[in-house]
């Protein structure tokens, strides 16, 4: 615009205003931009087709595996399905393994408690031997009978005590 204004000032009798020059340059820029965009799009298309296109007969190094092991879309989908199924099986087996480990820990805790009980019975058997009681099972049966007799005696004493209390209250 500046160059045009200077050149037009040098021509006598030319009366073009700066606003008219501005409008014309804007139209020119818009026209050039549209044509440039169209030409650039065509040039990009031509470059992609002719320069950057890999011909069908050329095999890139990263595509050699596909040449050795060709497959169809159906085969690929079948492999994907099988892979998904195997992943689900792996997850299920991991969950089952975790459940089995938890059960094993529980069994170990129960085993430890049972070992404590066995040690207690061994201790009782040793005590019975030291006291000359002989067999632990026989001693245990004798102890149970004695306990039952003591319970019966206790019931009798409690009943007599209750009767005495009633008798004392009545008097």
TrEMBL record:
Keywords: Cell cycle, Cell division, Centromere, Chromosome, Coiled coil, Kinetochore, Mitosis. Residues 69-167 form a coiled coil. One of its GO terms (cellular component) is MIS12/MIND type complex. One of its GO terms (biological process) is mitotic sister chromatid segregation. It is found in: Chromosome, Centromere, Kinetochore. It comes from the Eukaryota. It holds the Pfam family Mis12. Belongs to the mis12 family. This is Protein MIS12 homolog. It comes from Rhipidura dahli.
